[in-house]
């Protein structure tokens, strides 16, 4: 199987994920978020488990798409529940905890998948990879149990005194979001982030393994490289996500426009580090690991901060839709296509690169070797024509040149974040004013952590919601 066919597995998942996000966003602004998340997680667990039994590539690709349906549910809705439980700096802290899941989950995926495959490779041979997929639904069912038994869903906007805001029509929601400059710019910037993150997550281990092989280590195993790469991604997330959130909290006390600046500076710093790691992978794997670690730390600064931005520039009754449309556009133009695009560009460059020598191993498979071997076996219902053998050095250089595109996209993302800083203060003030106009007449008081202390009740007319939102 070619690099582009391998990248299609990730692209198909993200395409379905982004298409379903607006559906769950619309439902999340109008129906029980608790039960929507529960249904989505159950579907995710079921699709992952059943997909591990599929006998050929096309069926596996289909269930990979189904996984995207389940993931769209909780990734869209969960941040809005957090926003209704906490406000101010406490909300930022809780979002940082929540967004640990992205880099940490990605890292654990590499580690668990690699270790399960290694442990069962002797007894299950080329089928060992399937058991890695059968481990994750167990954790998913645990999360489902906790949501159903422990989660008490708060009223929308309760923590900010905006619980009397009423849902409006879908078209009115769209009009509000697409006239919100900070929302548009943060979404464009986040699209660049997802492009780079998706490309690195999919091709990083394979690229690193190629680098190890051309350093006269032809027996390097992808699972070993994936384990290290996963540990790096997880550790970088543990540091980068809270670092970005903490930095934003401290700076916005004096500079209300600081959040997008933190994200933009983080992207700019990551550019030379990512380029350096890709260059060093050809000569020294350990140094490359160190450099890519710091690159990922700065890339991870923005995850919690971007979500926080969306939540404080959008009124409570439109936050699920805002999260959903940000997911839609950031993934549609970001990581939905970046793995496939990087693979296609790498393949197109291969004929123009001269092999360094003929001593390197030329039989290495693309990512998920055991999976792809099985999919291309004569037992599979659907088979593909084997790609011609390509020298490892040629594969490495082609993929290296292709992945330099990530640096360009990072710079573009930083520009969007810097532009966002010009509008964010005004957009936040508009949002706060709409909430205040539709809350109780006496302001609800909060303690220094942003927790609700007291309130009084007299409901004002909610007709101001539409009128004021149109001004935004």
TrEMBL record:
Keywords: Membrane, Transmembrane, Transmembrane helix, Transport
Protein name: Major facilitator superfamily (MFS) profile domain-containing protein
Transmembrane parts of this sequence: 6-28, 35-54, 60-82, 94-112, 132-151, 183-205, 225-245, 257-280, 286-315, 327-346, 398-419
CDD domains: MFS_spinster_like
Ranges where the Major facilitator superfamily (MFS) profile domain occurs: 1-425
Membrane-protein topology: Multi-pass membrane protein
Keyword Hydrolase: no
Family recorded in the similarity comment: Belongs to the major facilitator superfamily. Spinster (TC 2.A.1.49) family.
Subcellular locations according to the entry: Membrane
One GO CC term on file: membrane
Predominant place of localization: membrane
GO MF entries: transmembrane transporter activity
Pfam hit, one: MFS_1
